[in-house]
Amino acid sequence: MTDEKTTRAGFVALIGEPNAGKSTLLNRMVGAKVSIVTHKVQTTRARIRGVAIEGDSQLVFVDTPGIFKPTRRLDRAMVAAAWGGAADADVVVLLIEAHRGMTKGVEAILEALSERTDTRNISLAINKIDRVPVDVLLELTSKMNERFNFNKTFLISAEKGHGVDDLREWLADEVPVGPWLYPEDQIADLPLRMIAAEITREKLTLQLHQELPYQLTVETENWEERKDGSARIDQVIYVARDGHKGILLGHKGETIKRISRASREELNTFLDRKVHLFLQVKVRPNWLEESERYGEMGLDFKDGN
Fold it and tell me: How far apart (Å, rounded) are the C-alpha atoms in residues 260 and 275?
């Protein structure tokens, strides 16, 4: 690392509607998978910090839950976490989808940004630019900047990497001068237990039908380091109903085996060693009202009030 006087470090909050591509952008910026990425909406629950290095700058990304109209306690806690991430950040990046444009949800976020963030450094990143013609993109860019005074606008594809380097370089110049906040080789500040739970929850979300993933949570109950260098990881999947347990297990346990295999393979790669993964499914009808579950997800139970 270079002389402390020349280094920069700061927090960057990625905000936007559900499924805008925040997790994909975070993972692209960091260069490793630290946040759950699926085609389903509202999959990010905790504020996940990914750490990236750009020149002499350390960028600590806060991947927030999508901002939407909350209807239940978990939703309210997730939205509160998103705005908390924006309030604590040095720079805020609003991510919108090029093909969806200025939706009612984006309008609501812009109104809230005006009320909540005073003179904070806020930039706009229009994502998935490969999905629309250039003239539509230019019109959307103009429309968004008329609606809100962004410091800078970026046209990107988080999935393909287009424009991401420009955004990262700009962010590197925007964060405050100061010492780095994390060790140089650290890519996230989530405990490994929580990252492991997120990986399994991603596999559940990809495998199961639309409604069930939002009514389950995963907790890493035990992590045992073995003498041969491998790790035994025991996880519990909490579901709200008996019927959900049956769906998750599948015929002759085939569904849960498939999920376990996919999660174990990714954990092997992520940890760069062999993982023995054991999954249990437990029915807890009121887990959405249990403060302990929120703590395991990195959310504040009180924010759901």
Answer: 11
